[in-house]
């Protein structure tokens, strides 16, 4: 507790010292500039930071971007999609840094694919990409299928689980990722009884301490290092130990398995990882590979559960959409004798449209942040972004922009009909990000979510309601409304 109090005091002092630094930096470039610090605004308010950025987006409809500050750092909140494309793709190497700093003693946070060091990130990304090829995903689908079946049986046999639907969904995403991506044998017959559930939940649940750590990291990296703070330190022994155990078991009993652990074995067998274009080298240690597994795990469990949760909330509020989706799901299950394969999941066209629309209204990550690594001029307005400045892509604001999506608050899956895909705004639909840092596991995520919802809605329907959230939970990353509920009703065919 004393460390937290000390940190709060230091952060406040630093804010007072730096609050006037570069106070007119954006005004000098004729950019509309906010006076308040956006991160401190978030800390003081009871809502997500994505909503804070959406307000900036909505309140400046004629501006290509708005200047402000994130902690003491000059920040530019982007509205123009050409500028978004520049940051995420065209000038990626000038914006590869996420602007989040970790300590090198933080074995999980400092070694994940979100690391800031470009060469290390690039090398790891190149070597991990093969885990999500179509052939690998096809091999994982049977595990997802088993997990989805166990998920529905859990709901049928434990009615109390339906009273906390988000917890049930989180149990499914945790168990299915543990079983299919990481190859971690839970030694439990029912995949829903995952030993990783508690760790996963604690890793992503919003908290004051976590938000404070990110604030200290941004305000004073020096203090962050001196305090040797760790974002995920409490999970190191459990998770790294679990992955080490599985790696050791595989070494003693070699087998060809198309999962994350199998890829880890291949990387370690090949020796030093090398970027041929630069000569950069990196050793595939157990700790480094465990960190990649941890990142996919915590990122996939929460975003997957949130996507399923918001999809079901919208389906409960749109009975016509629910009816049409039931018809597609029933037809597919009857044609395939109740068995889901990779190709069957891929053929759920309307289900894919429904999920895509849910991710538009409630993007899994509400904003994207990048730190400028070298001075650059944006293509619209010729504003100069200096090295060390922050740029923010307000995904939630973009997804609810009526100029991009007419009647944006309406849940309309037809926006994502195959015939309408070409009409989507370029770099205006960002549920998984875009450019070279687009989510590596996006294809796996869709399979996981589609399978879970397909099995769930084959057995259950939803009681009609009118879901209209006033605000979302106080989260630094995602849009969350974990206490929202819907009533699952067992269907006659079950």
In short:
The chain is of the alpha+beta class. It has helices at residues 2-18, 38-44, 49-58, 81-90, 118-128, 134-157, 165-180, 197-204, 208-219, 221-226, 236-252, 260-270, 286-317, 319-335, 342-346, 349-361, 395-399, 442-459, and strands at 33-37, 65-70, 73-78, 273-274, 281-282, 368-371, 376-377, 384-385, 390-393, 460-462, 488-490. The protein has one domain: Cytochrome p450, CATH 1.10.630.10.
Q: If you consult CATH, what is the topology?
A: Cytochrome p450
The CATH C-level name is Mainly Alpha
The percent range for helix content is: 40-55%
CATH H-tier superfamily: Cytochrome P450
Name the structural class. alpha+beta
Please give the alpha-carbon distance between the first and last residues.
Answer: 52 Å
Mean pLDDT: 85
- Tell me, briefly, the overall form: globular
CATH architecture: Orthogonal Bundle
- Detail the poorly predicted runs: none
Percent of residues in β-strands: 5-15%
How many extended strands?
A: 11
Mind describing the biggest β-sheet? Answer: 5 strands, mixed
Task: From the alpha carbons, calculate the radius of gyration and give it in angstroms.
Answer: 23 Å
The side-by-side strand order for the widest beta sheet comes to 1-2-3-9-6
Q: What's the SSE pattern?
A: HEHHEEHHHHHHHHHEEHHHHEEEEHHEE
Q: In total, how many domains does the architecture comprise?
A: 1
The tally of helices reads 18
Protein name: unspecific monooxygenase
InterPro entries: Cyt_P450 (IPR001128), Cyt_P450_CS (IPR017972), Cyt_P450_E_grp-I (IPR002401), Cyt_P450_sf (IPR036396), Insect_CytP450_Detox (IPR050476)
Catalytic activity: an organic molecule + reduced [NADPH--hemoprotein reductase] + O2 = an alcohol + oxidized [NADPH--hemoprotein reductase] + H2O + H(+)
Family: Belongs to the cytochrome P450 family.
């Amino acid at each position: 507790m004393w460390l937290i109090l000390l940190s709060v005091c230091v952060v406040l002092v630093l804010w007072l010292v730096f609050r006037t630094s570069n106070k007119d930096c954006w005004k000098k470039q004729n950019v509309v500039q906010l006076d308040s610090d956006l991160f401190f605004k978030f800390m003081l308010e009871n809502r997500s930071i994505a909503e804070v950025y959406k307000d900036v987006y909505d309140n400046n409809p004629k501006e290509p971007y708005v200047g402000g500050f994130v902690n003491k750092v000059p920040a530019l909140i982007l509205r123009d999609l050409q500028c978004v494309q520049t940051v995420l793709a065209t000038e990626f190497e000038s914006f590869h840094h996420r602007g989040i700093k970790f300590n090198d003693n933080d074995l999980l946070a400092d070694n994940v694919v979100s690391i800031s060091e470009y060469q290390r990130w690039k090398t790891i990304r190149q070597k991990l990409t093969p885990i999500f090829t179509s052939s690998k995903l096809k091999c994982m689908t049977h595990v997802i299928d088993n997990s989805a079946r166990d998920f529905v049986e859990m709901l049928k046999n434990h009615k109390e689980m339906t009273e906390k639907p988000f917890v049930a969904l989180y149990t499914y995403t945790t168990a299915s990722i543990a079983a299919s991506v990481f190859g971690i044998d839970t030694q439990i017959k029912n995949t829903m009884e995952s030993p990783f559930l508690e760790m996963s939940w604690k890793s992503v649940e919003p908290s004051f301490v976590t938000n404070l750590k990110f604030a200290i990291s941004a305000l004073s990296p020096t203090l962050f290092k001196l305090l040797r703070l760790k974002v995920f330190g409490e999970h190191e022994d459990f998770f790294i130990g679990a992955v080490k155990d599985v790696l050791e078991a595989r070494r003693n009993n070699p087998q060809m398995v198309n999962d994350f652990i199998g890829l880890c074995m291949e990387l370690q067998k090949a020796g030093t990882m090398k970027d041929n274009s630069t000569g950069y080298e990196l050793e595939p240690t157990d700790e480094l590979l465990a960190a990649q597994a941890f990142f996919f795990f915590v990122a996939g469990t929460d975003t997957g559960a949130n996507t399923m949760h918001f999809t079901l909330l919208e389906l409960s509020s749109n009975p016509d959409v629910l009816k049409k989706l039931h018809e597609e799901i029933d037809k597919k299950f009857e044609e395939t004798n109740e068995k889901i394969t990779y190709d069957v999941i891929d053929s759920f066209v309307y289900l894919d449209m429904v999920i895509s629309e849910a991710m538009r209204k409630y993007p899994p990550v509400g904003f994207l942040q990048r730190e400028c690594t070298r001075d650059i001029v944006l293509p619209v307005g010729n504003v100069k972004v200096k090295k060390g400045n922050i740029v923010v892509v307000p995904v939630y604001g973009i997804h609810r922009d009526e100029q991009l999506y007419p009647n944006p608050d309406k849940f309309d899956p037809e926006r994502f009909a195959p015939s309408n895909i070409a009409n989507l705004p370029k770099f205006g639909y960002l549920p998984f990000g875009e450019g070279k840092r687009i989510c590596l596991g996006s294809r796996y995520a869709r399979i996981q979510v589609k399978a879970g919802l397909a099995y769930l809605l084959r057995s259950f329907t939803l009681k009609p309601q009118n879901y209209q959230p006033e605000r979302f939970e106080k989260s630094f990353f995602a849009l969350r409304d974990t206490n929202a509920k819907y009533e699952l009703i067992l269907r006659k065919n079950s």
